[in-house]
Structure formats: C-alpha cells, structure tokens
Amino acid sequence: IFLLSDNDMEKSTSNKQQRSPKLCGTNYPVSIAFIVVNEFCERFSYYGMKAVLTLYFIRYLHWNENLSTAVYHAFSGLCYFTPILGAIIADSWLGKFKTIIYLSIVYVIGHVIKSVGAIPDVGDSTTHVALSVLGLVLIAFGTGGIKPCVAAFGGDQFEEEHIDERRKFFSIFYMSINAGSVLSTIITPILRGDVQCFGGDCYALAFGVPAALMVVALVVFIAGSGLYEKTPPQGNVLLNVCKCIGVLLLFFFFQKRLIQEIKMVLRVLLLYIPLPMFWALFDQQGSRWTLQATRMNMDFMLNALLILVFVPIFDMGVYPLVGLCRIKLTPLRKMATGMILAALAFCAATVVEVNVVKTVVETPPAKECLLQVLNLADGDVSVTFPGHSVFPQPIKPFEDPAEYTKLPLDDDMETFTVSVTHKDIVHQCQLNFNETTVYSLILHSDITCELVKDNYTKSDTGAAFLRFINTRTDNINISVGSQDFEVSSGYGISQSLDVERGQYNDVKCLSSTSKTYQIDLGLLDFGAFYTFILEGLTWRKTVDVQPNNVHIAWQVPQYVLITAGEVMFSITGLEFSYSQAPASMKSVLQAGWLLTVAFGNVIVLIVAEGAGLEQWTEFVLFAALLVGVSIIFSIMAYFYTYVDPDQLDKEFRDENKDNMDDLKKDKKEQESMGMKDVPKQTKI
C-alpha cells in the first residue's frame, strides 16, 4: 500500500475546499446548471434523431421493416452497452470531465456523418448506407460513453453533507432528459415531413438539427469548465479489480481499501441482477404500446410529459406525505414499489389490448386464409366451397360483410371450384387461394368471379384506407384529400390508399365523359378500411375492416402507472448507484446501471420473438414475471446494508494519517539511533 505523504494530504484537503459558488444562496453549485443544460441538449439530440430513424431506414434507405427493426434495436442496444467503456475510460484514464468532452466530439462527428448520409446528392445508395451506419456507430459510442459520466459528474459537484440537494439534483437531471425528449420528438418529425428539400422529406435537416443541439451541448459543458469539481482518475480501476479478485482467490490478501471498494460495488451489482425485467416492460412503450395506440382512435405522447409533472409531485408531495405516516421509504423500497407499479401498468395494458384487437384483422395462420364476398349482382347468391361450409346463408346484393370468414386450406396453396348460385342457376369459378392471405371475392352482375387480395394492416398514423369499384362504362377520377384514385370502367378496382380521418361530404368525381359531380363519402374513421362501389349514380359503402373504436384515453391509466413506476424506480436507482459507489468507481457503477437497460431490451427480443404469444397474453406474462422478480429483489434488498463511501474515505484518510504519524515516529527513533533515513513514501 502507498501511504499518503504530508503534501498529498494537503493537496487532497485543498481540492475539497475549491468548490463552485452556490446558486442564489442555496447549497446547489452553479456548475450543475451547465450540466443540466448540457443533458437537455444532448437528450434533444439523441431522441430527436431516433424519432425519425425507423422511417429513414424504410423510406430513404428502402430497407424492409424486419431489417429496419433489427438495425434500430441493435443501435439502441449498442447505446446501452458502450457505457461500460466510457466508465472505464473516465475512472481509469481521462477522468469524467475529459471523457465527456472527447466522446462528445465523437458524438458530434457521428451526427454530422449521419446528416451528410441523408443528402441524396452525396454518392449512391451504398454511400448513404455506409455513412448512416458509420454515423450511428459513432453516435452509439458517443452517447453511450458519456451516459455514465454526466450523471456521476453532476453528483461530484455536491459536498458530502448535502445529500438531500444531491438527491433532488438527480430528479432535476431526469426532468431535463424528458424535457429534451418531449421537444425533440415533436420538432424533428415536423422538420422531416413539413419541410421539403432535395425533392422529398428533409431527413438531412431532421438529423442536422439534433447535430446542432449536440454542438450546443458541448459548448455549454465546456463553458462551465472553471466551475467544476473535477475528481482525478484513480488509475486502471478494471485492472485493479481483476487483480484484487484474483489475489483474493489465490492468497486471501491484498490492498485493504480496494477490497472494501470492490465489495461495495459487487454488492450493488448483485442487486442489479433482477432489474432488467423492469426495463423489459418499460421500454415497450416505444414498441408494443405504440403499436397498440395505432389501433386506437387517437394518438398522443404521455410518458415524457407525465415525467415532467410527476417528478415534483413525488419529491414535494408523495414522499413527504409517506414520511408523515412514519413509513421509512428507503431507496430500495422505492425501487421495489416502482416495479410493482410497472407490473400493474401492464395489467391495465392487457385490458386495453383485449378490447383493441376486436377491430383488428389478424394475419391468418399457416394453411388458412380469410375471405369476404361482395355481391354486385341483382339478386341473392349462394356461395359453396366443396368440403367446407363457410357461407351457409345467401348473400344479398351489395351487402356489407360483417367480417372476414376463415377458409381452411389443405396446403400452403389450394385451388377450389367454387359454386355460385344466382336465380337458381349454378355458376362455377376456379380460384386459387394462398395461406396467410386476406381476400375479397367480387361477384359481377353476370356472376363473373374476381378474387382480389385485400390490404388489412392498419395505418401507424390512424389513417383510413379506401378503394373504389366502378361498375359503370366510363372511367372516373376521384380526389379524396391529397389522394387521387383512378378507376377504369367495367368493374375496375382502384388502389387502396390512405387518407386522413375526417368527414368527406363533398368529394369531386370526374368522369371520362367530362362530367363532374360531387359525392358524399361520409365519415372515414380512424384505422378503418372501406370499399365504395359505384352503381349508376349511386355509391354503396362497405366497411372491410372496422374503425378503431377504443379511445386513446384508455391508455392513460397504464401510462400513469408506468410513469409513477419510472419516477420511483429509475430516478431512485440513478441516485442510489451514485451514492453507494466509491469515488474511484462511480462511473463504473453508473455504467452497470445502464447495462440493466440493455439486458432488458434483450429480454423483450427473446420473449417477443421466441414465445409466439398473442399480445394480451404476452402483456400478462411480462406483468407476472416482473411481480416475481420484484419479490426476489425485495428479499435481496432486505439483506442489503447501506454504506457511506464518503465515510469510508474519511476512515482511510484517518488511517493514513495515523500511519504517517507512526512513520514519523519511527523515523525520529531511527535518526536518533543513527540509522538510515526512511523514504517519505514507503511500500509495505
């Protein structure tokens, strides 16, 4: 062990005295203002870029949905695995301040490359893909590398005795994250869609604005340089930890202080083992819950907005009230309660999902297809499939089918000779059906059969889809909103296109005979699919897929519960990770906390891809798993003993001082006996 000399002791004391001035007479250092603004701008940059990333993959790079989803989750996962690298660099080599600056520069470069890759005139499609992937990798290393450092660096600004102020700082810090998220996820999609550049959606601008915000974040952080309390790196922490563990296993002897610090970290990391399950549920807000919202009749973002409201409510209302009831709400108890609230949120989501799926046409399974019959003849028809009783009742002219009917198949494809009876005359049609496909069988007035594949997947934006069938002898052109439908004569069928929800009572229809007239389509509702059949001058309307009839407000309870859970779990966990870590390993422990998020996403991928459950069943499974995990976590928390790293530092400083006094005493005795001088720093 190296014992501190007198000069080392004096330097350590002087560093503790050089603190940032306080904000308006409070115990909050001025330096944290720069850190909070930096975090706001960085989170705006990150979430703003992610808000349009999937659409960029699909519409600009022309990747399919599966590849886009895989790359999106790979990028998200990398952003939460790289914090361990940033933590090691900060605690072992550069220190938090320099690590944040250098990796922020990498972050900015990644944003710039990503923005350049979104300019159509720069190279070909291969160049765009290469620049996009390189930019994302640099962004992942930048944002992931600074994640564990910024929060820990903010905590370093507080003096040892200002525990309450430091706890509230982490709440403010978390609010800045969500404030940046709210603004960016509103602004960048607008920049992409409403601003046109290079002949299309302006992805270059949508990525360029987050890049500019990251530059602002870096400048603001550097501007506060003279005010920061900068803790120097403590040597190669990871190497020392590995050495210590190895020596402990082999010789049961090593540096006393490092042993204590490693014990502290390992005890906290052990508590982290169950935590990914919380994130497995929480992060489904951006996937499963968002998809659930697209099948409802409205859409708005709640979590980030609720966070801004709930943080002060919990800090100034809920927690003090619980304290008045003489209930000791420790950090680990808060986290366990947050896990239970998240599980309840998924129970609420299950109830919503059960009702939402009633209006959804699910993709049929293997060896099965879905079919509806549109009778355009002048009388009832009976449709018979050999070996199946799928349409037992006669079908009336222009009858709106109540729902699609399941048609079993013997293989992945089957040919049927369908019998259609009209006015006691039997007509036969030979039709080919493929599995997992949805069809409309359109019967013309002469009982000609036309089999059409239907679009049935609801729009992500809640838009309605419609198509037109023209039984007239002239071509027609119809303008609905921003869409133009061209429908040829003689039972021509238009494309199925999406239009915004609304009343369409005065739609312009232009005939090839140069006649113009207005038609009333009525309400085109959220998520519905319509077929309009023109018979003479009369329009017939059928609803192929029912509109979303569950209001988005029914999602409010699950968002309230998950946000309350986030406040109690995530903010508390962030502060707990800092408070229980020794000075030399604060960034490492913050990185361990962030790794629980990464592993939570892995759990989602495993369950979602491997279980093959219905969505509401999957929600129940996740809720049950989190309840079980929260019980295990509560048991582990019961046996956990809170430590004070600052007190540990004080004890070792006192011990070093005593050892120095002993060395001085020994030195004097040796000098009095004429023995050789003992060096000021002695390895023992």
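Above is the first protein from milestone M3; the second protein from the same milestone is given next.
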Amino acid sequence: IMQDTKKFFENLSGAGKSIGVLTSGGDAQGMNAAVRAVVRMGIYVGAKVYFIHEGYQGMVDGGDNIKEASWESVSSMLQVGGTVIGSARCKDFRTHEGRLRAALNLVQRGITNLCVIGGDGSLTGANLFREEWSGLLDELVQSGQISEEAAQTHSALHIVGMVGSIDNDFCGTDMTIGTDSALHRIIEVVDAIMTTAQSHQRTFVLEVMGRHCGYLALVSALACGADWVLIPEMPPKDGWEEQMCHKLSENRADKKRLNIIIVAEGAIDQNNKPITTELIKDLVVRCLGFDTRVTILGHVQRGGTPSAFDRILASRMGVEAVLALLEASPGTPACVVSLCGNQAVRLPLMECVQMTQEVQKAMDEKRFEEAVKLRGRSFENNLNTYKLLSHHKIDAELPRSSFNVAVLNVGAPAAGMNAAVRSAVRVGITEGHTLFAVNDGFEGFSKGQVMQRKLTDHYDFFWYSFRTLPAKHIDKIAEQMRIHNINALLVIGGFEAFESLLQLVDARSRYEEFCVPMCMLPATISNNVSGTDLSIGTDTSLNAIVEVRLNFGPCFMLTCDRIKQSASGTKRRVFIIETMGGYCGYLATVGGLAAGADAAYIYEEPFDIRDLQSNVEHLTEKMKTSIQRGLVLRNENCSENYTTDFIYQLYSEEGKGVFDCRKNVLGHMQQGGAPSPFDRNFGTKIAAKAMQWISKKLKEFYRKGRVFANTEDSACLLGMRRRALVFQPVIQLKDETDFVHRIPKEQWWLRLRPLMKILAKYKTSYDVSDSGQLEHIVRLRAKDISAI
C-alpha cells in the first residue's frame, strides 16, 4: 500500500521541453551548485537546458549568451564560488523593449521554462516577464518576428525561483543560498581577530554586510559570543551608548581580554540615523579609553568556496526547481523553492516578495517588532536567543530559584558541544537556577567532578566527554545527585547519551534521585540518533569531508576540492575516501552530495560485487569523456569484506589505462577543528530551548518542597523533525532504534541517495512524494511559528 501511494519522478517527462537557467543580481556561493543541479536534473528527465550568461542582460542580448548546456559542462563547478555563468545588473530588462527582445530570444530557442537564481529584485522581474509573456508574443507576431504557430506553441512561460543572497533577506525561506558560506567567512575572520585582540587587550568593531537585513550580523554574533550587535531590525533604545560601554567595561573587569562588536552595514538608531563603525569606535575610545580597531569585511563575505550546507541546499533546491517546472501548468503561478526547517517547500513567488517589501516598509515606519515577525521564524528565533544570552544584569539582580541543574557531555566529541554548554549555562542562570557542569561525563559524575558555573565564566575550552554509560556507576551517580541536590539534567551527546537517558529512566523505579526532568541534545558527527534529522557536529564534519587536507605524500597536501581540480590539470584520477559514522551512512551520503561523489557505499544500502563492477564501468565510461576526476566515498562499516583497500584495488585494476587511484582514510580529523557557524548556532539555539523546557518542567513537577518527575514526557530528546524542533520522550524513541547497529530504523537522508546518483549520471528511481504542493506563506507562518 505504501508503495502504491508514492509518487516517482519517472512519471514526469521533460521530453520536448527547454529550460533556461540564469543567475542575477549579487553573486552568492552555492549558485554554481544550483546551476549544476538544474542542468543535470533537466538533462536527466529528457529536457534541453540552456545557460543564460550574464543574467537578464544575456537574455536581452541573446546570441552566444544563450548556449545549450551539456552534462560535462557543469563538471568541477560544485566547489567554485560565485557564478560561472555570470551575473549583471540589467537596465534594459526593466524596459518593455528589453523584455520584448528577451522574449524573442527565448522563443527562437524554444525556452518556455525559466529557473531564476537571485534576490527579490531578480525574482520580481521574472514574475513581471511571465505576466507580460502573452502580450509580448502578440507584439512579436504582429511585427512578423515570430509566427502565430510559434506563439501558440510557446504560449505559457513557467517561472521557478531559487533565492541566492548572502544577506538571507528574503521572506518565506529559513536560509537563502550563500548565507551559510558568508557566515563561514565572517566567523573565520572573527576567530582570527580574537587571537590578536586577546594579545593586545583590544576592542574590535566589525562591519558585516546587510544593508537592509541584520541576519549575518545577528547569527555571527550568536556564533562567536560577541559583546554587542547592532542590526537594522532592532535599533538600540535611547541610552544604548552608556549601556554598551557598561557591558564592555564589565567584561574587562571579569578579566576578558577582548571585546567584539558586530555591526550590520545598515544598522540604525531609533530615529533611523545610521550607526557606523567609526561612530562606535570613537564612542568606545572617548568613554572607556580602550584600544579600538575597525575591520570592514566587505566583499570577502561573497568570496571563497561554498560551504557543505550551501552545496547541499543548492543541489536539493535545483532538483526541486526542475520538478516544479515539469509539474507546472499554464495556470500555475510563479513559485520560489524555499527551505522550511529541513524540508523543501514551494511558495508563491509574489507572496514572498510582497512580504519582503513589507519588512522594509515596517522598518521605515519604525514598526520594528512587526518587521522582525515579518522576517520569519528563523530570524525571530535567532533574535530571541540572542536576547536570552545577552543578559546585561549583574548576578545580584538575577531571579533566584531553588533548583539545581547539571549539564554534561557524553560520548565522542562533536564540534558545537561547547556552544551548547555555554548557551545552556547562561540561559539557566538568567532563569534563576544554579548551574553545575560535570566533567568527564557520567564517569566524572560518579567521582564527584561537579562544579558550579557562573554567568561570567568563559567557555573557550572543552568539557571532556567519556563514553561510559551510567549503569556501570549508577549507585555513585545517584549519590552525587543527592549530594548536590540536582533537580534536572541536560545531557549533550550522541548514541551513548541516548542510551544513558534510557538507563536513567529505567533506574527511576530504584532511585528517586533520577525522578527529575531530563533532556538530551543530539551531538554526534554520525547523526545516528533517533528523533532528529540533524545533530550538533554533523555540519562541521561534512565541511571537513569537502575541505579537509588529504596527505598523499610528503609534499602533496591538498584539499578535497583542490584534489578534484588537480586531476583536471594532470591525469585522470579517482579518489577513494573512507568516512566515519559507525553503521550510519549519513556522512558518506550527504558528504557525497556536497562533494559531487560518483558513488557512496553505506551499510543501509547493501551492495555486492556486481554493484561494484557496475560502478567501476560507469565511472570508466565517464572518465573517457572530458571529465577528469572521480570521487568515491565509503562508510567505515558499510561492509565487512569490501574494505577500503579492496575497493581501492578494484578501481585501480579495472581503471588501468583510463585513470589511476588514490585513497585516504579521514579518521578522527572529522571530529576536530573549529565548529562551523551552523553547528555553533544550532547548538546555541537548541540548548537555550532545552533549558527553557527544563525550567517549565521544574515548575510543573515541583510539589511539597521537592521535584518529582517520573512520567514519560519528563525525559525527552530535543530534535529537528522536518519543519520543527520537537521534544520527544526517549522511551517512545526506543522502538524507532536499531540498537545492534546503533542507528534509527528509518532515516530521512536515505531519500537523498537517488538525488546523489542522478547528479552522478546513474539511472535510478526517485521518490518525489515529499515534493511540495504550492503552499502559502501566511498559512505556513501561522502553523509553524510556535514550533521552533
């Protein structure tokens, strides 16, 4: 029955259709990945796909600016920043005559489907073009430039948009293509500046892009723990200068050797007057006498290679855009492919544009709270989290409760754990609780390695995490819970943390000390915990896979991306890479999608020697064309017999005369390095939400002078499920888990595997049941805004 209800894209044919793809407006990292996905998906379904170079200008000028794309023409494009097909501001397209010329150029090539990658201005122009289309064709018929038959054949123009903008200033989507990569550039600079600022006890004022939207400034401030942030949507109240200087001097008094202030380029005060970096510098120097420097990041934020997140987002959106074009009818309105939580959705383009314009109107009219709500749930939740963490009250002014909360890390390390601990401690203290940090996981807990934390504590270190499960020391842990009067637990970790919570819940019948609210935050690079689509640490690990330096000899140190480029400059070469993940193939699959892999071997999708042989033959045929590099990923536990060495030797032998092979086992470098902006932000937000849940449960279960919680919903995992963050009882998640292989029984990302195969030119079946029906932005917000 389940099989019968599924919808497969094989039923959607692109035969006889032509798709034009263009990038317009400001460039953004990830645009090339979107172009690549549109081209390959379009060709895969039988359509012709055309590059429209230089955006709308190329559409108006025609000629060589509109060229048919081939499968090979988008090779080695995935890892390149900017847009290789060019982008330009086009005055001609704003005129009726310019759009008439553009229509003629499209009709001459049979293009009636447009995929536009750009900002709200570019997408608005596309929608106007669509509305005028029939009139433009009538004019072309009357002038004799096209026949009536051609006008009838091309009577409808279908438009699908993808938002490419580093500012994340488009309503209707949680993230736009390029935003995550821009955050990478900002955080790289902030991390570098922090070392020099600490050395000289300096204050740094950083200006980031965002003329009309403060998303980059806000999220980078959250990710790096900035002392102050100024954004257009939240002008500081009168007297902010004194408050900011007081906060900076407080931090210096707490022996913090640096201050970071982040300013969006469009920051304003309550009177809509600009707040510039120089104004802030002069203020700090005049009032505090601190050595203060200004850094303006500028177009650095647009540059560099796209992050793993942007590559995956753009690839998913590009495929969804082609599906939307195939399903479009003459009456289908222009739509934009958006991201809601972890799900691709389609929204009417003009609803999103109108709401985006309403944001600016609200800001111009000083209705700033309304502007924040119009920005969408992602922006609003980031802002609310920032307000929680930027508590300016001193300890004596904080509320007091009688509750003690312990925070601990369990299992293998994952980048972003520190951000989660910092957020949990700060929010817990501002809610009035006494916060304890436990070192060395449950093993440290049993030994009494429990320390009280303060609001002014710094978290530029790692709370060590052990894999020991509590059952081994259950008596001693219960004793420490009693000694420190622990009323709630926040456990951060992977599968060991999940098993630990189950053991503590099971022990409640024997130890009343564990009858307290308990919450788990998933933090593991393997992303193998039931109840969540994403885990803290996975994004950093994915970036390690696509960017990590691989050592293929004493002097041969190259990144994955540079490896692909190096092959095109020398001989044809295939790289066999082993990833971590235990029995979970998330890293191999999603990393393969981000890196443009030709194959990814995982435990969840059994394979045999015939499959390996087929893959080798497929890759050999590809390498006989202009494609000169190949990438094969293998999950460490995908097969007991088909080891990395075996696969390397097989490809080496079968590829003789066509390509040679190199192999590398990435190992624990996937767990190391600085956390990505996504993991810092994700860890910060879910830890804050978890601590608020704990506060609510503590009040709910406080009776007769003590906390007593033994219901299923008092021990939960907080996870991302499709569009929302959801608290789920760990007992209920037990049935969803394969404990032998330490993976969930159902894993959402397996639906991405056909997408990876399609982009690698394999014939496969792709379930598009989740591909969105057209939704409406107002209904979407009303339904989901309270969920995250």
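Note on the second protein: Confidence is low (pLDDT under 50) at residues 1-6, 549-559, 779-788.
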